[in-house]
């Protein structure tokens, strides 16, 4: 946290740090940005945004945003002095990193601090999906137990074969948890992970064909768009389950709905969707899916840690132009 003196200096208009908030943020973070850093917020309305950029764009040196909104190439082009995009969240697929690299704009995210909570969510979703706890809860509340008798039998979680698509920090944390359930873990990743105790599959289809449950933990973005398509769902098969805690964009949602409604897949547990916060009615109508409103990292502790790391990145950038947790940047194409 900055000292009172620093804060006073920031309020001196000649030393305004040029912080711009893009999109909604955790209220306490937005409040800190406004009161401690004199941040402006980019208007949502197109006309107001244009007027705002006409008046303020040249002052902006750093944007604070979240994975929900991000900064596209057009906004970057409108901010000539932009030096950094600071992203609240580990996923930064809504920020155009190619455009950032070309302009020499740095990007940071909030890795590590949310790994445990997102991995917990994956395991919770998997248990709920296979054991049907949410559906069984609805069955009880609807008064069906005394009328219709015992709830139908479900599927065992322990000792199943689980495939993890994307063996990064979160994928590894999921694997560690499920190993304790006696699950056999295999994975597919862009690159084989040196020294990994888990079995490597050469493709998503090969992975899906070898497991009972496929857990999607790959980062979003152009490199993973619809990696889980019809072919992968077919390979998972009518007894297979899909769990997604990564990004909706990694799964072909139309193909998923089709597989679920036609009985080509046993069930799915989803924390992320293609067009959040909109979820297809066809999914909502199904009993064999568990649907969560993107709550993976949503605990008091983890969101506070994400907020603190976001502010550490901002503080470092304003102090000396560096970032605490920069994301790897693509090498700009030679022009
Ligand atoms: C957040 C997430 O909900 O970190 C991520 O990539 O998806 C979640 O932790 C989101 O980024 C906050 O907007």
Automatic annotation (TrEMBL):
Q: Where is the signal peptide?
A: none
- Which PROSITE patterns does the UniProt record give? D_2_HYDROXYACID_DH_1
Which CDD domains does this one have? Answer: HPPR (cd12156)
- Could you tell me the superkingdom of the organism this chain comes from? Bacteria
Q: Name one GO molecular function term.
A: hydroxypyruvate reductase [NAD(P)H] activity
Annotated ranges, domain D-isomer specific 2-hydroxyacid dehydrogenase catalytic: 52-327
Positions of the D-isomer specific 2-hydroxyacid dehydrogenase NAD-binding domain: 123-296
Query: May I have one GO cellular component term?
Result: cytosol
Q: Which UniProt keywords apply?
A: NAD, NADP, Oxidoreductase
Q: Where is this region: Disordered?
A: 1-23
Pfam families hit by this protein: 2-Hacid_dh (PF00389), 2-Hacid_dh_C (PF02826)
In terms of Gene3D superfamilies, this protein maps to: NAD(P)-binding Rossmann-like Domain
Q: Which family does it belong to?
A: Belongs to the D-isomer specific 2-hydroxyacid dehydrogenase family.
What is this protein's name?
2-hydroxyacid dehydrogenase
Upper classification of the organism: Bacteria, Bacillati, Actinomycetota, Actinomycetes, Mycobacteriales
